[in-house]
Every structure is written in structure tokens, then in C-alpha cells.
User: Which sequence fits this backbone?
């Protein structure tokens, strides 16, 4: 945005910046100069989503995991099956 | 207390509570325009190489399945407003399917949660993640009068930038989530869910809110009927009645009742909400300011686009303003403004300084 849209200053009556300084007049900059554009910034927006805040403490969560590990056996997946390897 | 009519509309249940808590109108977030989505680019195709991320106007920010606590489910089912019928049907469907259904309420399916947390560039864009309560025809929420804490407090853009974000997301959302969790658990006790059912329920992911553990059955969106029977106990087969009773229990509660049930966590966030509300309705600017950290997105046509408190709410700042920021170097704000006037012949209006502060381009020197 150029200074042509500055608030409180008529474009026709607007003298040069140097003359203004000489004459002691001030250019007034208002809040409307700051624009909130549509959309977000690409590449980072995916990090901010609606989300329930987890009020459970991480300690409690870890405890829960430990408990599960001792009470519940997970069926092995293919990737966990030891692979055949040749003798070294 | 009846909330003032110029206040940002909240769900009726929360509106009466929060009006009592803050004691005044909550300024409207007029920049977050659902009817004309501020995150969409209209019908325009994004320019090649554009740095801007737009939402899909068909789905907007409703690419999320809300966790509906038991009393909210009950209130939705008992809503007599004809406009609530669509939402009621979608809630009944979720209950009938049984996925994520527990005495605590309706949680998103594990498959959804897993996809949601592990997908990028999907929020606001992927129709596969659409909320089941979203009314595609017209782009409205089917459960608007009983939407949950997250949907109540989520805005893409805030009139007061970070000040608004701190009130809505860092304070009120936390408060309402704490209240929702406490009241949902309180309902279990009031309705005398039997001990065995409770014991099984507290061992599930529903209790912790971590519903993204995927099993073979849940991957196929199948319900573990054995677990389902255990957590529902004597209420199995009467789920809508149970939810309805929860709604009846919570609806007449006053804010002081909710605070008492919610305990210290609720009281703590209530205090933070009151404090951030005070800042939201105040025009005050710190007595000494300095430039805050920001992410420079692009400079084009004497306009600088910066990211500060949120990627969803960038700010376009004219070069004429950017060139003056260095005057705010921790000296008293009045002296910085006087120096700008003396040396640059420019007077910054208080509203502009406040907006720079609201958007964290300027921060308190004490930070």
C-alpha cells in the first residue's frame, strides 16, 4: 500500500515528505494500513488444526502404555518377523 | 445473566455460563466469516508459485470430527428446533454405527484420528475428513447450537490477532474442554453406571481421549461388540436414553455448579479466561515496546507480508510502517512515537500501534 491511502491526508493537498518535514506537518498512519489478507501461508498451515487439547499428563499416558505392555500381547506383524540372513 | 446481543454467539448452554464468568459482551470475531469464508479464494485458481494456502470452499474448516460429550449428545437429540433435525439424524447415525460410542459420548473413529493427525495439507481441504454434522448444502453446521468446545472457540482469523487467539484458544477452549470432560464424567456417576462398566471404561482410550489406537477391527470400522457391551453395562441398547438423561442433568446447571463439579482445573482456566477477557476488551498498550519475532513471507509492491501468531492470519504491512519498527527498541512507547514524529515526520495513530502489538509485530519490552 502506498502512502496515497494514508488516513487523514487529502491526496491533492499532500506535499512531498521533505516539505512536510520543513513545515512541521506530520503524515498520519492509521490502523487501516495493516491488512489481514484471505488465506494462510502455504507450507505451514498444515501444522495448525482443530484439536482436542490433551489434559492427560504425559506421565499418566506413559504409565498407561507400560500397563498395556504387561497385560496385552500384540500379534507380531510381518515386519517384526526375523529375516533370514546368511552366515557371516 | 443474559449475554449482550452484540456478543460473539456461543452455544446457548455455554453462553449463559460464560456471560456469568466474564460479565460482559465478547467482541465478535468479524474477520472469521463462515458465510463468506476468509480462508477461501472464491472461485479463483491460486496463482502458480503462490505462497497462500486456501481452504476448499465446499468444506471450509469443517474437516474435523468433533468429540461430542454425552450431555451435548443428549441436548442435540432433544432439541426441538426444526433446524436441528439434520444434526439429530447425523448423531443418531453415529450412535447406531457404534464407532467411538461410549457412555462418555461420541468420539471420532480411530481411523479418522489416525488419518487426521498424520496428514498434511488436509485441514480445510480434504473432503474425506469432513465432519459428519456438516450440512454441505449451504455450508452450515448441523449441531451449531450444541457444538463442542473446539468448534466454539476455533476462528481462522482474529480481529485482535494474538490477543483474540489467547482468549479463545489458549483460555476459553481449555476452560470449556475441562468443563466438558468433568461434566461427562459426573454424568456417569449421577446415572449410576455400574462398577464393572466403569472399570472397563476407564481402561479404554475413551477415558484418556487418545482414540487413535487402530486395531484390526477398528481399521475396518468395525465395533468390538464385546468391549462395547462391557462399557455400557445395563445401559446397552438404551444409549439415546442415557445421553438424553445426561443432557437433562447438565442443562439446568449454573456456572457455579459447573465450576464446583469441574474442580481446580476448571477454576484455574476460569481465572485465565477472565484475565484474557480483560485484555481482549482493553485498548491498553505496554509502556515500552520492542519488535517481536516474525516470519517474513514476501515483499511485493512496497507491502511486506508477515506471519506472527498464526499461519492462518498473516498481516500485510506497508513498507512505510516496516521502516519505523526499529524505533521500538525498548524505550518508552511515548518516546519512540516522538522520535518517529521528529525524525520521520510521521505520526502513528494509537490504533495502529495497538494493532502492531495485537499481532505481535511489537511486543512488551518485558517479554
Assistant:
Amino acid at each position: 500500500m502506498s502512502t496515497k491511502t494514508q488516513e487523514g491526508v487529502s491526496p491533492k493537498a499532500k506535499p512531498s515528505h521533505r516539505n512536510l518535514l520543513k513545515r512541521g506537518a506530520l503524515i498520519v498512519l492509521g490502523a487501516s494500513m495493516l491488512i489481514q489478507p484471505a488465506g494462510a501461508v502455504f507450507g505451514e498451515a498444515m501444522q495448525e488444526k482443530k484439536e482436542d487439547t490433551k489434559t492427560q499428563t504425559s506421565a499418566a499416558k506413559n504409565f498407561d502404555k507400560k500397563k498395556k505392555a504387561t497385560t496385552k500381547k500384540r500379534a507380531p506383524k510381518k515386519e517384526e518377523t526375523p529375516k533370514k540372513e546368511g552366515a557371516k | 445473566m443474559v449475554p449482550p446481543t452484540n456478543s460473539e454467539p456461543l452455544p446457548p448452554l455455554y453462553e449463559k455460563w460464560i456471560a456469568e464468568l466474564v460479565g460482559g459482551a465478547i467482541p465478535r470475531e468479524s474477520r472469521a466469516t463462515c458465510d463468506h469464508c476468509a480462508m477461501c479464494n472464491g472461485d479463483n485458481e491460486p496463482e502458480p508459485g503462490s505462497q497462500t494456502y486456501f481452504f476448499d470452499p465446499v468444506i471450509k474448516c469443517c474437516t474435523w470430527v468433533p468429540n461430542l460429550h454425552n450431555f451435548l449428545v443428549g441436548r442435540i437429540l432433544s432439541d426441538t428446533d426444526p433446524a436441528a433435525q439434520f444434526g439429530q439424524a447425523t448423531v443418531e447415525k453415529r450412535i447406531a454405527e457404534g464407532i467411538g460410542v461410549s457412555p462418555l459420548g461420541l468420539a471420532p473413529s480411530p481411523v479418522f484420528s489416525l488419518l487426521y493427525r498424520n496428514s498434511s495439507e488436509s485441514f480445510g481441504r480434504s473432503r474425506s475428513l469432513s465432519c459428519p454434522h456438516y450440512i454441505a448444502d449451504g455450508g452450515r453446521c448441523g449441531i451449531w447450537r450444541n457444538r463442542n468446545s473446539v468448534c466454539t472457540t476455533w476462528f481462522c482469523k482474529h480481529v485482535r490477532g494474538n490477543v483474540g487467539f489467547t482468549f479463545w484458544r489458549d483460555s476459553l477452549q481449555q476452560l470449556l474442554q475441562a468443563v466438558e470432560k468433568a461434566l461427562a464424567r459426573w454424568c456417569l456417576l449421577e446415572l449410576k453406571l455400574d462398577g464393572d462398566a466403569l472399570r472397563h471404561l476407564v481402561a479404554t482410550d475413551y477415558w484418556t481421549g487418545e482414540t487413535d489406537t487402530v486395531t484390526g477391527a477398528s481399521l475396518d470400522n468395525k465395533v468390538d461388540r464385546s468391549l462395547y457391551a462391557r462399557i455400557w453395562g445395563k445401559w446397552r441398547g438404551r444409549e439415546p436414553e442415557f445421553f438424553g438423561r445426561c443432557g437433562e442433568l447438565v442443562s439446568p446447571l449454573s456456572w457455579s455448579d459447573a465450576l464446583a463439579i469441574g474442580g481446580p482445573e476448571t477454576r484455574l482456566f476460569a481465572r485465565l479466561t477472565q484475565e484474557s477477557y480483560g485484555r481482549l476488551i482493553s485498548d491498553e498498550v505496554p509502556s515500552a515496546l520492542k519488535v517481536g519475532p516474525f516470519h517474513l513471507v514476501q515483499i511485493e509492491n512496497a507491502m511486506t507480508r508477515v506471519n506472527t501468531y498464526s499461519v492462518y492470519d498473516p498481516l500485510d504491512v506497508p513498507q512505510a510502517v516496516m521502516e519505523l519498527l526499529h524505533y521500538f527498541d525498548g524505550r518508552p512507547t511515548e518516546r519512540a512515537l516522538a522520535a518517529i514524529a521528529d525524525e520521520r515526520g510521521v505520526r502513528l495513530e494509537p490504533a495502529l500501534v495497538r494493532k502492531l502489538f495485537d499481532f505481535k509485530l511489537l511486543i512488551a519490552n518485558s517479554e
